[in-house]
Amino acid sequence: KAGVTQTPRYLIKTRGQQVTLSCSPISGHRSVSWYQQTPGQGLQFLFEYFSETQRNKGNFPGRFSGRQFSNSRSEMNVSTLELGDSALYLCASSLDSGTQYFGPGTRLLVL
Amino acid sequence: DQQVKQNSPSLSVQEGRISILNCDYTNSMFDYFLWYKKYPAEGPTFLISISSIKDKNEDGRFTVFLNKSAKHLSLHIVPSQPGDSAVYFCAALGGGSNYKLTFGKGTLLTVNP
């Protein structure tokens, strides 16, 4: 079974721009979660979607948003980028609750 | 408030010996615990998990122990191999949400040949 895939793998943007990241979960997995990893804060939960509905949300500003499509694929959007948004963005999928399996991540650099 | 803590930022062991990575948690509502291994610029790879109804789970060279009364879990790797060198994250589910992993800050394990 193919694993979680994320595109793009690397991205460079400038302050004020917006960015959209994509995640395709493991086939059959309906839950998709997003995490941000930075050296100072570690792995922080952004939000989780199940059957196109956001079930849980972390403590991030409204500039961070997401959605899930009927095929369980998910996108994450960050508007008005700030330097501090530079991070590794990780997507994870699971059947419902329980063990989450991670993709390789998207490395975002904001200049 | 850090609900999952890995107090050792790094650990160095010799090849063939046992590696013991520790993790403490504060939220008694956590009921499922996982260990992930991570290389730089890659996503975490799931290693092993344990439910709060158990106190031990074993998978090959990896064993996780859970002490609920102490709110402590540990990952044992025996024997350690150089390829095990990576950052290991402890994570917890539950605590009001079964959909959000709460991670520790990670422990960098170095296995020396």
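qc> The mean pLDDT of chain A is 94.
qc> done
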